[in-house]
């Protein structure tokens, strides 16, 4: 198999990974963008869209406050989309169920992303010490270069996380797919129902709103009634 | 040596754009310190010269951390204060004290509004459309989040530069905390809508009566409660899918 799709996915991983902390933060790093972007680059945007939607709901409430580092949902989104597109066995296996399987096998590796992110931030710790030296020597142009080295550190962390997620996911998929592929067709409709609802539950648990239970139940009731009447 | 010139618009825009890289050298020791100095450096080189520039650079390498969006008003106001200081004007509060006093509240307000409310709301709307297979959901998400976020970044920077200390009044007038509370109401409504749509669409696919849809709310609330009590969302999802798989096998729906 050609390595080209993996290079493309690595490029997406780098762009989205830098947006996560180091550069812009225009939310290209969110799964709802990173996964469809990867899918689009690999010529299968629909798969990316499903993976992005499921993952976004699941980890929507995790926020990077202060020095806390949440699991790397960006690289999970890129990695699982890359796996779902490149490893798709053919029309005998349903696309959505296979995408969810790819997501499930890559999710645990998202925690490893935190390790590389921490490593990058520790490496950045040496930069301001060197910046102080540069200031003492009145070499102000060096400050820009030192600061931009941080981008390299974060970029490297993104690529390493992507690599681990891809390899780990690939290994798990090789083990699980032969066992589960026969069931995927029948399980798919249930997964389409259960996975987004599990995501909603995870998201709802993080919302800091006083009457969330009542508002949520009321909104469900109204929309469900409308769908029953006009859907 | 005193520099007395005001910063040109070109330099100010350069600083505002550099702030997009504020977190590039984020570190555990002093967080955004080098990012802050990198951002304001074009202005400092205009305002200060020689030993004074060295002293000010050294000073601004101290600890700094705030929300990347609401750090911009602090940067703008700090620049104006540095200008006033370089002209020998008396300041009510030192620039360092001002930075320290503003960083914490701006971080709390910005994290709560942008990370905790606006982003989940924009994402949940986009997820609803994405589940329906609409590719424009991605563009909609980017617009819903970035129009206010980028607007407030640059508007905050210019307001900070114009108003110096008085940026505090401006930030208060934006009432981001109140707005966040109202938007969280909207977020919960959207989550209710997504659940209803997923239930209605999904029950049709599994060929179950729509009456089963009414059981969705207690199940979602129970799972949400478990996650709130400390069950990891990853463990919850894997557990749920495994239960589904086992349940289907037990019901002989899936062949063994």
- The number of distinct structural domains of chain A comes to 1
- Supply the helix-strand structural class of chain A: mainly alpha
Number of helical elements of chain B: 10
Helix/strand order of chain B: HHHHHHHHHH
Q: Please give the largest β-sheet of chain A.
A: none
Number of strands of chain A: 0
User: What is the rounded Rg of chain B?
Assistant: 25 Å
The share of residues in helices of chain B is over 70%
Description:
The complex is a heterodimer of chains A (231) and B (256). Chain A is mostly helical and 231 residues long. In chain A, 76% of the residues lie in helices and 0% in strands. Chain A contains 9 helices and no strands. Chain A is globular, with a radius of gyration of 21 Å. In chain B, helix 2 (33-47) runs parallel beside helix 4, helix 4 runs antiparallel to helix 5 (95-131) and helix 5 (95-131) packs antiparallel against helix 6. The radius of gyration of chain B is 25 Å and the shape is elongated. By secondary structure, chain B is mostly helical. The interface between A and B is large, with 97 and 95 residues.
Quick structural gist:
Chain A is mostly helical. Chain A has helices at residues 4-20, 31-41, 45-58, 73-86, 95-106, 110-136, 141-180, 184-204, 212-230. The relative contact order of chain A is 0.14.
């Amino acid at each position: 198999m050609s390595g080209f799709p993996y290079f493309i996915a690595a490029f997406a991983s780098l762009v989205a990974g830098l947006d996560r902390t180091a550069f812009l933060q225009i939310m290209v790093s969110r799964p709802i963008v990173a996964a469809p972007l990867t899918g689009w680059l690999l010529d299968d945007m629909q798969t990316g869209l499903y993976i992005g939607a499921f993952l976004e709901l699941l980890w929507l409430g995790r926020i990077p406050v202060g020095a806390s580092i949440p699991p790397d949902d960006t690289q999970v989104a890129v990695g699982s989309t890359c796996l779902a597109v490149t490893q798709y066995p053919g029309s005998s296996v349903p696309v959505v169920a296979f995408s969810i399987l790819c997501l499930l096998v890559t999710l645990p590796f998202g925690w490893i992303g935190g390790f590389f992110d921490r490593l990058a931030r520790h490496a950045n710790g040496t930069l301001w010490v060197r910046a102080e030296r540069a200031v003492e020597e009145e070499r102000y142009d060096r400050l820009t270069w030192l600061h931009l080295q941080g981008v390299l550190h974060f970029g490297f962390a993104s690529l390493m996380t992507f690599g681990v997620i891809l390899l780990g996911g690939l290994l798990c998929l090789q083990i699980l797919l032969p066992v589960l592929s026969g069931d995927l067709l029948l399980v798919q409709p249930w997964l389409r129902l259960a996975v987004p609802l599990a995501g909603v539950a995870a998201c709802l648990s993080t919302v800091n709103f006083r009457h969330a239970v009542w508002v949520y139940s009321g909104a469900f009731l109204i929309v469900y009634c409308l769908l029953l009447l006009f859907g | 040596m005193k520099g007395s010139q005001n910063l040109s618009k070109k330099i100010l825009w350069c600083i505002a754009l550099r702030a997009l890289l504020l977190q590039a050298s984020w570190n555990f020791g002093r967080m955004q310190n080098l990012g802050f100095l990198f951002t304001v450096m074009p202005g400092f080189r205009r305002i200060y010269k020689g030993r004074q520039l060295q002293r000010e650079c050294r000073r601004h390498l101290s600890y700094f951390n705030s929300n990347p969006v609401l750090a911009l008003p602090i940067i703008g106001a700090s620049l104006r204060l540095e200008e006033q200081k370089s002209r020998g004007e008396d300041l009510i509060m030192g620039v360092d004290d001002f930075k320290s006093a503003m960083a914490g509240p701006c971080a709390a307000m910005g994290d709560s509004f942008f990370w905790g409310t606006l982003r989940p709301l924009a994402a949940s709307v986009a997820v609803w459309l994405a589940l329906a297979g609409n590719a424009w959901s991605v563009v909609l998400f980017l617009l819903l989040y970035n129009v206010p976020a980028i607007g407030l970044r640059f508007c905050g920077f210019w307001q900070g530069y114009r108003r110096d200390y008085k940026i505090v009044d401006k930030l208060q007038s934006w009432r981001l905390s109140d707005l966040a509370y109202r938007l969280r109401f909207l977020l919960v409504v959207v989550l209710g809508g997504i659940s209803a749509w997923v239930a209605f669409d999904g029950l049709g696919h599994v060929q179950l009566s729509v009456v089963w849809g009414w059981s969705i709310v207690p199940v979602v609330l129970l799972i949400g409660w478990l996650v709130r009590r400390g069950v990891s969302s990853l463990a919850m999802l894997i557990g749920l899918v495994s239960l589904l798989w086992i349940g289907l096998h037990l019901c002989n729906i899936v062949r063994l």
